[in-house]
UniProtKB/TrEMBL annotation, chains A, B:
Substrate binds at residues 179, 205, 226-229. InterPro entries: Amidase_CS, Amidase_dom, AS_sf. This is amidase. It comes from Mycena venus. It catalyses: a monocarboxylic acid amide + H2O = a monocarboxylate + NH4(+). Residues 74-552 form the Amidase domain. It comes from the Eukaryota. The active site is at residues 130, 205, 229. Belongs to the amidase family.
Amino acid sequence: MTWKQIAAEKKSHQLDSVPKEWLSADLPPSEALSVIDFPGESHALSTLDVEITESSVASLLSNLASSKWSAVQVTTSFYKRAIVAQELVSFFLIGKADSPNFTDFRALDEHLQKTGQVVGALHGLPISLKDQISIKGIESTMGYVSWVGQFAEKNSVLVDILESLGAVPFVKTNICQTLMWTETFNHVFGRTTNPYNRSLTSGGSSGGEGALVALKGSPLGVGSDIGGSVRIPAGFCGVYGLRPSYNRIPYAGCVNSLEGEDSILSVLGPLSNTLDGIKTFFKAVLSKEPWQMDPMVIRKRWSEEEYRLIDHGNGEKLCFAIMWDNGVVVPHPPVRRGLEITKKALLAAGHQVIDWKPYKHAEIWKNFNRSRVSAPAIPNFENAIWNAASAEDFKVSTAPTGEPVIASMGLLQDELLSRLSPIGISAFELWKLHKIKRDLRQEYLKHWEETVSQTGTGRPVDAIISPMAPYTAPPHGMNKTAQYTMWCNLLDYPAMIIPVTKVDQALDVKQPRQQFYNVDDRENYERYDPATHENAPVSIQIVGRTMEEEAVIAMSEIVDKALRGAKSKL
Amino acid sequence: MTWKQIAAEKKSHQLDSVPKEWLSADLPPSEALSVIDFPGESHALSTLDVEITESSVASLLSNLASSKWSAVQVTTSFYKRAIVAQELVSFFLIGKADSPNFTDFRALDEHLQKTGQVVGALHGLPISLKDQISIKGIESTMGYVSWVGQFAEKNSVLVDILESLGAVPFVKTNICQTLMWTETFNHVFGRTTNPYNRSLTSGGSSGGEGALVALKGSPLGVGSDIGGSVRIPAGFCGVYGLRPSYNRIPYAGCVNSLEGEDSILSVLGPLSNTLDGIKTFFKAVLSKEPWQMDPMVIRKRWSEEEYRLIDHGNGEKLCFAIMWDNGVVVPHPPVRRGLEITKKALLAAGHQVIDWKPYKHAEIWKNFNRSRVSAPAIPNFENAIWNAASAEDFKVSTAPTGEPVIASMGLLQDELLSRLSPIGISAFELWKLHKIKRDLRQEYLKHWEETVSQTGTGRPVDAIISPMAPYTAPPHGMNKTAQYTMWCNLLDYPAMIIPVTKVDQALDVKQPRQQFYNVDDRENYERYDPATHENAPVSIQIVGRTMEEEAVIAMSEIVDKALRGAKSKL
């Protein structure tokens, strides 16, 4: 069979095992752009299904614990809604869906009935997982045709932990081929679109998660982030998403791209419709001491003290710094408006807000990935950590079937394929890049510490508030740069995505601009048209210090509360 | 000038600035092997000098805090004793020694007098530092002739922290050229010998620290460890030494070899004559929140709970496992006797002791460094993490003067120079090695967890007790393998060296042996002659889980107490 035949066969089986009565008879027409409200009104869902799927994680857990709702009921409701989501945006459906007998979940109900006790902190909570997070017996295609038919022999560590907490990993979600793009498209399952506007990308590489969680087909999803792959889909799809520091959430047992690329580590992180979902996931996973199961995980328990912001004046008067732009590419008007709304809300809530002066963001980006912009100024243009051997890595996974590496997203592939030597760089060159990276981290830390003179709190800036991209979700194939997320990966800063508003053509008009940082900045400006981005979510990113997840969650709650407070006053 | 002239000139200036009255008139003859007791009897030291330099860290700190001894007095006493040590074993003397005006230290006394408060937790404590740990204005030669004259422009982060704690970084100590050997010899400052038997090596690469601390020329030293470089000198010289996990003690601002080799990280660790010195250092450095100064340091405070062994049944009945040999090279008789003494002492103290089954130690060693033994079984013989680009790295530092890379220690250099391609391996090959490394860590963790079925405590083995080398200090040039320390670096296990006894020709007789694991094992057996190792310290290594320094310190105290208890009953 050719790779096209393998892919076509796989895709044609995709919905075969789904109960036919759960398919929607009343799907919106394909030209309907926003489908975000459709599932709540779909005839495929009962009133109870809608009530359950529109509950917060906290309320789901409490109703499950009190036996108001059974685990089987909750999982069935989310599974039904996920099927609707699949029909709308093709988030990709696999997993228990292939054999939906729900045996495992019934055991949860029996346990609760018999003992009166929940199995664990996530009792009965359905959780969706990015394709690469292995579930025993379930396929991980990773978007590669040659991986079709690779069934996991055992659970990843995270799945073992989630199950021991009583959670229900129930579907797997779509990614991009190679995992190294910021959109979601591959030759096996095709493209995942944005539920707020299907002509726009859902982001990537965890775009299946972003789209599914936004449509409330899952209360909590887990993606991975090596350059923004949790945050970009979260931001583009208007949900919350956390990129934790390296090695806090166990990654062992997942399949991956660029295996052994240890310079900038991919991390797993949660997406949810509420911050309580993010916190609940993070705290619950750490409670299982994952360092006893994955040697890479840092032995650091959830710190209630750090969550109470002992390192940030107990959260009483925080000083945030807004990075309006990164000195490389200026964000589009709706992104700026999102920051302005946030600033106003925080000031109204009694916090302080100053400007963040970006520091060497072009160099950071360049160390990571080759970039047109930074090239003239920096020698060894060809060398960057991701490019060190990625062409060789991609070839290993595409060669068996002859499937081509998709070259359509601009970010990495176009240049990589045409310009990179297929044998990559030497280990010695890679060591030099590590040294540059370490110096950048050291300098950025110093830069941050020195803000103590500007805050008036006696502390350096508590958190940076940054765009998560220089635009809201763009049309498919146009997500050109991940530089607004990548810096956190290189510096290893935990970062939370918070949705703020949506693109409004009346408010987000294009302003004349004459001066540009560089050619990318000019092109980004020229591409902007508010009509194109109609209805796209506008999000911000709360950035903290390395290993400070507890504080980032707490500060995000403060920002979120300020934003909701401001909204309720409108 | 040729490299020989530069080296000769530097060396001839080495003792020039030392006060002549502090030199010893009564040095032992060069054929005297043990000089360990000489400084205490030297006419160069007063009775007070001897009393001070033979005090524990705890008692120094308490007498400094009470003003019984001034910081100037304490530093002067150690400085005088360090000069004697230099004359005996050439530990290498540089630093404040070049301009011994002690101004900085006087300020400590004035502060205490004026405020009644100590400056910090290490008030007035002299600390010796391995050459690579930068002190502003002081040279770091790193054992390379081409580095002579490179004066540090600023302190390393650790030195800033130590000074803020009131400590007195007072001398720098000798290393090996390249930092990547386990003996201490370079073209600039020559060789550091073992104070217990000067025909034997002091170990390396922190051999200057091992020798100086053993001679009590410093109460606390700081070395670095990427394959055993703290532990080997500590073990060979009979002092305590800790290899902490990656990124707990700040490394930023130090100079280094193999910069950017981030696969297996070098770490800084303390050496001292008492465990209280180790603990005091560790706790004090963490109290300054080093993650605010070095972005690599993990945000994890000293945990009093973990020190009280909450993860180990509160330390009431521990289960240790002894690794008698690693399945690759069987240790010499004195090493085995050290383990037997420890076992007996622990059983007498009410703890449990079982055997540790080594797991893939040849593969671990091979992933790190090319090895004859493991080569036949494993493909890509040439590839190993250290060899990935080390030849190129060494060349950068030796090329400017034409100084040859020293090729005399067998461990790395002999093979490296003759067999390694000067361009190393590709980044893609390095990624593959990372994957092997990660799998080895995952498997070793599982192996450890599975011991829960053998301990009877309900927990897996609490700590492994291992040799730190398959021999006690060998003659110069004969330290052939670091495999008994390297595994902890690859697996990132914290490990403490504890001295147990000394080689005794009557007890440590050579036993006949017919079967060998491999050719290295046979050669190691054949080389043993108890007379050669006369008086050499015998040490053990207490190995814990990643990031569990607090528990390793606490368990080491338990082992040490058991050993001292056993000794006092003899």
